[in-house]
Amino acid sequence: MAAHVRKGGTLEETEGRPCLCNGLLAAVGLGRRRPRSVVEPPVVTVGQDLGFLRHIAPDGGEYGAEAGMRRLSAGLVEEASASV
Predict the structure, then answer these.
(1) What is the DSSP letter of 60?
(2) 19: how many CB neighbours lie within 10 A of its CB?
(3) Dist. CA 57–CA 46, nearest whole Å
């Protein structure tokens, strides 16, 4: 919050907003633990190219991680593991 204010923002603008750095760390299991057992919520980003969304949710409805994984793994063939 201090950095945001130092760069010209207001303290009120930070209210209820998560910290991006802490949120990204929380996404990989390294979130901060705050007083009263509050855990930093994870933040996941998708970048700027959102063209894939029309394949995951063609009707513009909600979608989840399962739909995203189906899209990412479409066409992949599972290889049989060799016994050692």
Answers:
(1) S
(2) 16
(3) 15
Q: Is 69 exposed, middle or buried (0-12, 13-18, 19+ CB in 10 A)?
A: exposed
The amino acid at 22: N
Q: Residue 16, Cα to own-chain centre: how many angstroms?
A: 17
What whole-number distance in Å separates Cα of residue 64 and Cα of residue 46?
A: 13
pLDDT one-digit tens code per residue, 32-78: 888 888 888 888 877 788 887 887 887 888 888 888 788 888 877 76
Q: Which amino acid is at 4?
A: H
Give 38-49 pLDDT, tens digit per residue: 888 888 877 788
pTM for the model? 0.45
Q: Rounded to whole angstroms, how far apart are CA atoms 1 and 16?
A: 11
